[in-house]
Design goal:
Layout (H helix, E strand, L loop, with lengths): L8 H14 L3 H4 L4 H6 L2 H18 L5 E4 L2 E6 L4 E6 L3 E6 L2
Antiparallel strand pairs: 1-2, 2-3, 3-4
């Protein structure tokens, strides 16, 4: 099925990476302890989040939503968006078109 998009893929992944970096607990999805995550340089953390964003993007093609750390990532095919949400306190929208 896949996630359909009209924007440049690299721009979507950049926005998705930024959204994931703003959420907490994403390192758990990568099977890293908070201590190990904290020891990474900023560039290394960003590279991990970019890889995670890429993996989640393709995963959303088959799963409607996925739990990552303390957030839920959902693909809304009708609105052409990806939503990264942690309850009422945090929501980021990534536009696909």
């Amino acid at each position: 099925m896949g996630v359909k998009f009209g924007r440049e893929y690299k721009d979507i992944i950049t926005d998705f990476t930024d959204a994931l970096q703003s959420a907490s607990g994403c390192h758990d999805f990568l099977e890293m302890s908070a201590e190990d995550w904290g020891e990474l340089e900023a560039e290394e953390r960003e590279a991990c989040m970019k890889t995670l964003a890429d993996d989640l993007f393709y995963g959303l093609g088959t799963e409607g939503s996925m739990h990552v750390g303390n957030c839920v990532v959902t693909h809304d095919a009708k609105r052409h968006i990806i939503r990264v949400a942690t309850g009422d306190s945090f929501t980021r929208i990534i536009h696909l078109v």
